[in-house]
């Protein structure tokens, strides 16, 4: 059984994240989506809200688990017997930080690989922060996020 961890902030989950999850499911037996509790970040949504959105958005997928973690991603991966971490690569701008993280993680845990997956072109410009910004300013984001996220964004920003 090959388990992979897909770690991230998911603040909130977007269609880009879902694209990566679908691709990961073709390569691994089980994907654990892991919401990172990062004390250095001030997220819009609480961990519980992010978990709930992810669970709803992935309810149609088999072999997906959604959970949260704190501490090092490689430690979390080891505890769950994962053989790899998934990260999404959208553009060259993602590369430098991801490359550094992958090499440091490999130094700490040589048996846990980092696998980079590219989303469909239609998602390469998407990230959670741009979604938050568009929604905050009252514009429609239905093309970019699953329906459950629309409801949560409306509630946060009090738009109709
Ligand atoms: P983090 O704070 O760890 O970057 P994110 O939720 O922003 O958390 O991203 C989690 C992972 O998903 C990262 O590997 C990121 O590159 C990837 N990702 C985010 N948005 C997209 C997208 N539109 N297409 C593909 N991968 C994405």
Task: Note down, in words, how this protein is organized.
With 160 residues, this protein is an alpha/beta fold. It has one domain: HUPs (Rossmann fold). It contains six helices and five strands, in the order βαβαβαβαβαα. It has a five-stranded parallel β-sheet, with helices on both faces. Helix 1 (15-27) links the parallel strand 1 (3-8) and strand 2 (30-36). The N and C termini lie far apart (45 Å). The model has no long low-confidence stretch (mean pLDDT 96). Residues 8-10, 14, 16-17, 20, 87-88, 90, 94, 119, 123, 126-128 line the site of adenosine-5'-diphosphate (ADP).
Q: Which class do the helix and strand fractions yield?
A: alpha/beta
So how many helices?
6
How many distinct beta strands? 5
- CATH H-level superfamily title: HUPs
Features:
globular, single chain, five-stranded parallel β-sheet, binds adenosine-5'-diphosphate, 160 residues, 5 strands, 42% helix, Rossmann fold, alpha/beta
List the helices and strands and how they pair.
Elements lengths: L2 E6 L6 H13 L2 E7 L10 H11 L6 E6 L3 H7 L4 E5 L3 H17 L4 E5 L10 H9 L10 H11 L3
Parallel strand pairs: 1-2, 1-4, 2-3, 4-5
This protein binds adenosine-5'-diphosphate.
Brief characterization of the structure:
The chain is 42% helix and 18% strand.
